[in-house]
Amino acid sequence: MAEPLWKSYERQICAVLRKLGGEDATVLFDQQIPGRFSGVNRQIDILVRGTFAGQPHVHDMVVDCKMFSRKLDVTHVENFVGLLEDVNCALGLLVTTEGFTPAAKRRAESVRGVNTEVIRLDEMTKWLPRSVIVATTTGSSAATLSFRDDDGEPQTQWVSLDFARQLLIAQGRTELP
């Protein structure tokens, strides 16, 4: 069964961060970190460990991915800031497909170490390898992506049909195979 489109979005953000981080960073997907105030494990979409902004010491950065149909509001930013405080992380990146309300942007800018980024689903194809092969089975709700990663190794990934359609549209193709 194909994973949900939002999970594919998170995986692609993770792949981009791995590429950008190179050897200086460790990028971990779908992690659990104990909350120091809540006393429960907190789910982290992506955890990046490495050196940032010229800092000589290794730091953690929590990345939260939101694939919503509307802009994130100030409540989403507040929840993210609370997550960072609970897991004792001073750096955070909040990523969304649709952007932020002006109030949410102002709130994020007021917190040191919190950055926001808009990465739309149709822009994800810019980061994926160019030679993506999409395969589907009639009646299935999933598609298979086959491609070579940055090291030239063959990779296969299950994605939703919606995600596969977005990839094909971005490549100038209009129909699934």
From TrEMBL:
GO molecular function, one term: endonuclease activity
Sequence ranges assigned to domain Restriction endonuclease type IV Mrr in this UniProt record: 7-126
InterPro entries cross-referenced by the UniProt entry: Restrct_endonuc-II-like, Restrct_endonuc_IV_Mrr, tRNA_endonuc-like_dom_sf
Biological process terms in GO annotation: DNA restriction-modification system
SUPFAM superfamilies in alphabetical order: Restriction endonuclease-like (SSF52980)
Protein name: Restriction endonuclease type IV Mrr domain-containing protein
Highest taxon of the lineage: Bacteria
